[in-house]
């Protein structure tokens, strides 16, 4: 009889080895020419804000920038930690354009946080996909994430997208853990249960508030989470319980009372998130008045902007170039995207669908009022998109394996 313990241990070691290989590929692509890569125009603006004192930055953002301050503050204190003399420079061009030939120049140092946030996102992505699916999909999702030109580009900039992506994934991961603890398992009024729930809730509140102070599109993360919970509630309201995969019935006091208590806990968590953001609300209102006279985003978002965004998540071609690569290469890229997308449509979980499509569709519907369809604003969707495509890639490999096995087993007719 085979030793299951040794077999499971061997499988676990193979998973770790494969993930380490993916991580090496990931870091190699993002560290390659990091110090010599051209400076994106918004990087100058990010450094310009980061050179300001925190008080000056917050007062300036209300009149010159439509984004919250957290990422700029982070870059400011990163400069103060690793290279305090940078804060004495007068302009962003002085910081970024000096010593461009050195390997460890200012560009390299200031772009490292983006690589760090992106690396943490990859690790969390593997854990999240393993929890909701299996290790095969987790590894395939990590591979897709690592090879994405879109993610690689933004990881190599002194901008907020990878930080927002990390905070969005942390918030979603903790939301899923809170969901499973509150609504899938039985509620237990014990110190140990309450302690775990409190830790998860505090982590969720802090990561979500931090995300809102990084970019306002984190509101869509909170929105899709509440839609997910509401849909699950409607699906299981007759039984007064939530579950994943199967409905179980409760009896006695373990029904409507506990369901109401669970909903109350979740609403309290959401109220704490709102309270944490209220401190920035006056500045947000000022920014909205300024933004009403300016235009941020794509000049003309059309119905083709949605599939083009999903295509560019995998095959980004050039900076802010909304026309895909043409010719035979473009045809191959589009064919790969189309096949993966078709195989990914069925088999994904509701939380993945909502994470990707709720923000994109809502923003698109708002474009007649205000042009807000900017591709990197949806960076928080990308981990879910990598999982979405990972499911499709697993189905493709399973189909190919099944066909190969059938050809080997079924004898050919003579």
Can you describe what's shown?
The protein is mainly alpha-helical. The protein has one domain (4-403). It is built from 17 helices and no strands. It has helices at 4-31, 41-50, 54-64, 70-82, 92-96, 106-132, 135-147, 149-155, 161-184, 191-212, 218-236, 256-277, 281-291, 305-314, 327-345, 350-366, 382-409. Helix 6 packs parallel to helix 9 (161-184), helix 7 (135-147) crosses helix 17 (382-409) and helix 9 (161-184) runs antiparallel to helix 10 (191-212). The relative contact order is 0.10. Mean pLDDT is 82; it is low at 241-254 and 318-324.
TL;DR of this structure?
By secondary structure, the chain is an all-alpha fold. It has helices at 4-31, 41-50, 54-64, 70-82, 92-96, 106-132, 135-147, 149-155, 161-184, 191-212, 218-236, 256-277, 281-291, 305-314, 327-345, 350-366, 382-409. α11 packs across α16.
* Beta-strand content estimate: under 5%
Count of alpha/pi helices: 17
Anisotropy-based shape: globular
- pLDDT < 50 runs, ≥5 residues: 241-254, 318-324
What is the terminal separation in angstroms? Answer: 40 Å
Q: Tell me the helix content.
A: 55-70%
N-to-C SSE series? HHHHHHHHHHHHHHHHH
The structural class is: mainly alpha
Number of DSSP strand runs: 0
Q: Biggest sheet: strands, sense, closure?
A: none
| Alpha-carbon Rg, integer | 23 Å
Kindly report the average pLDDT value. 82
Please, how many domains? 1
